[in-house]
Structures are given as structure tokens and as C-alpha cells.
Amino acid sequence: MLPKMSPSIADMDASGEVKRLDCEYKDLSAPFRLQERDYYRQFFNLYAVRLNKMREWLLACVEKKWGKKYAVKRLTDLKEGDDSCICVGTLFKHQELKPSILKEISEDNQLMPLPKRTHFVSDEDKLILEDELQRMPLIGSLNVHELVTGCVVAVLGKPSTGGKFQVEDVCWPSPTNPIYSTPHVQNDRLLVLVSGFDLVGSSDSVFPIELFIDWATGLIGNPADQSRIVRVIVAGNSFRSQSEPEADIFAKFGNTTQKDNINANLLAARQLDDILNQLSTSVDVELMPGAFDPTNNSLPQQPLHFCMFPKASKNITFHGATNPHMFELGSRLVVGTSGQSVADITAFSKIEDPLVALEKTLEWGHLMPTAPDTLACYPFYKEDPFIMNNKPDIYFVGNQDSFQTKLVNSSDEDSPTRLVCVPKFATTFTCAVVNLATLDCYPVSFNVKKVTTG
């Protein structure tokens, strides 16, 4: 059964008709919208900006954690035999199994055939700390298999033999400053998160999607409950959930030509337009792109073009969003991605739980630490938009195998963050609902037999 909540006076007009609640909204995704497209720059600028900016507040975190007992030194100033000190730099993870264009060329020349891999971790992986001038291997109190390239960190320790740095402790630049100390959300307004419709690859989710639409628009269930839904976020992979060779696509649809494959994509676009149109006639809807949707592949992904949605785009309540996406809703800061960041972290570390990977990015203070090393992104040179300047109240990732959630606190005086792994709808028939007032989160599942909540 759906959770029951009695309608309040705010839900009804004078005639007794249930009205959908509104909620103050502010789009904060401007840093993710590309104003220029210059791909000729080198990526070292992005790493330099990331290190310089995150060093500023990392040093404040260092003073709070370790006080002023230890000196802060550059890697070039270290000498063997020095006392314990603090160094700030960017982690580089040396991995023999990491994909390499040079190895791919060798494979093409049949010099060194490589097996196809989806996981690139080995026991020989090593961590290296680097700043603007030098790099130094790290040993000691660091679990190499729980870290990835691109994280900015402060390490406490001392130089060791062989030009290595013996780590005793670490400090991460976790964001701690929310935009608002006291949210102004009332009447249990709800945010709905859904991802992975996979309209090309899945035919079993059509009826569950219709159930989801009817539930979100108030046609089934208790209309007083649905009136509290103030925004629906569709977090990527609406067209596809994975990359498939053309031969596999043709076999799946019984097609033999590329034209038929194009027709399948056009049919999916029409289906998605109908879905978004039905939703947006009742509630504000934001569509984020995913890894396999028809937009740019490198992050940040730009909104899907409105010409693909002739029906939904006529509604002022339909909005195209970037991936990543950031916004304020009812004085809650909401940040989320469509799943590429978590998938890349699990591929290049021994972190298998996506919820743990999501929490790690919060601790590291960065949405996409592995970009641009193993995750394609735009070559920014003046700023790194993926740095988490403010601690989010709600932090989600889409296209996961199952629903997971956790409420985390970085310290006693900070407000908590609600972490949400949004499941793939095509395989789980499940969306996630977050209460903006209490940060409570629960799944709502749909299938051909029943509608349940957990």
C-alpha cells in the first residue's frame, strides 16, 4: 500500500479540490552549461585549478584536525630524515591494467594482445602524490584499493627511504558549509527521482511506466499524497541503459538494416516525449541525459535537445537539465549525476557498493574525481565545476542496480546529507521519493501485479 497522509488545508482549494503544492526552485547548474566548445586545450589546467582551489579550504580542514603542530611543506622541500609534516597534492593511481592508447596501438599491430576488461584493479597498484612541481610515491596508512586518481588530499607523515613518503594520517576536503542552516520546507513536499527507462532495450517496463505516470499525476493512489510531489527528476539513460553493438541491436528487434535501428531510436524518442508530456502536464519534470542518451558523451553532458520532444517542450513545466545537475528546492541543496562517476570509481577501485562510492565522492569533495583521467570531460582551464563547494542536503546517483539510501553526517555540528542510489527503472520498476522537510527517503515500486512501497 502507498503511505497514507491526510490532506491539509494547503492541499485543497475552496471547492475542496486537491491542488498540487508548489515549492521554491532555483537552478544552480550554470557551471555545467558549456558556453564555448574548445577541445584543443590540455587537461593539466584542470588539475592545476582543482589543486589550487581545493588546497585553500583543505588547509583549513588540516588546522581543524591536526592544529598547527606540523609544518606544511611542498614536495620539493622534503628531505629524508625530516620530522613529520603535511603535504597537499593530487593522488595519481598507477595501475598496470588501466586502458592505454599505446597498448591499444600495440594490440592493433598484434604485438601484445590484451584481454577485454571491465575492472582494472590489481595487487600491484600504487599511489603517487603530485603537486605543481614534483611527484612522490606514498606508502603507509592509505588503502590504495579504496582510492582513485584525481582526489586532492593532505597527508601527514615523513619522507622515507627510496624517495617515498610514509603516510601516518590523511585529511580530505569534505564540504561542510550548507547554503542554509535552517531549511524552510513545510507540509512534507516530496522530490521524486527516477532513472533508466531504457526505452530501446526494454519492452517489459512499458506498463510499469504507465503506472508510475498515473501515480505521479494522482490518477491512482491518494491524490493528497501525490499533491506533495513538487518535482520529478529523470536521471539519465531514458533511451538506452548500455552500449550495444549494432548486430546485437538488430537481433533484438529482428532488424537487418541500420535504417531499422534508426527507426527504433525514433520510436523510443516518441515514447519518451509522450511520457514526459503526461508527467509535465501535472508536475515539474527535469530530464537529465545519461551515458547512452543522444547528447555529448564527455561530462558535463548538456541537456537533450527540445526538438526531440515536440509535445513535452510546449509545457512550461518541462525542463532540460545537465548531467551533473544542481539546484535548490525548498531551500534544500540537491546535487546528482546519472551514474558515470560511480561506475568509473567501481571500475578502477575495489569499491563494489555504489552507495559507498557515492559517500566517498562526498568525503573527497568532488563529483567526478576520475575525470579527465579515465572519465571523459570537457578541458576546463579556469575552473573545475565538479568541485563540491557546498555540502548538499540530497545527493543522488542514477542508474544503479538497486535502491539504496543513507543519511550521513561529516561532523556533529553539520546538517546531514541524504545519499540516494536511484535504481534502473527498466529492471526494478522502482523510483525513489525524498521528503524535503525530513530527508526521509523510500522506494516506490511498480509492476503488473501490484504497487508497493518500502
UniProtKB/TrEMBL annotation:
InterPro entries reported for this sequence: DNA_pol_a/d/e_bsu, DNA_pol_D_N, DNA_pol_delta/II_ssu, PolD2_C
Keywords from the UniProt entry: DNA replication, Nucleus
Subcellular localization: Nucleus
GO molecular function, one term: DNA binding
The DNA polymerase alpha/delta/epsilon subunit B domain, residue ranges: 192-404
Main localization of the protein described in the UniProt heading: nucleus
UniProt-recorded name of the protein: DNA polymerase delta subunit 2
Biological processes annotated in GO: DNA strand elongation involved in DNA replication
Organism placement in taxonomy: Eukaryota, Metazoa, Ecdysozoa, Arthropoda, Hexapoda
GO cellular component, one term: delta DNA polymerase complex
Domain DNA polymerase delta subunit OB-fold residue range list: 42-170
Family, as annotated: Belongs to the DNA polymerase delta/II small subunit family.
Signal sequence segment: none
PANTHER family named among the record's database cross-references: DNA POLYMERASE DELTA SUBUNIT 2
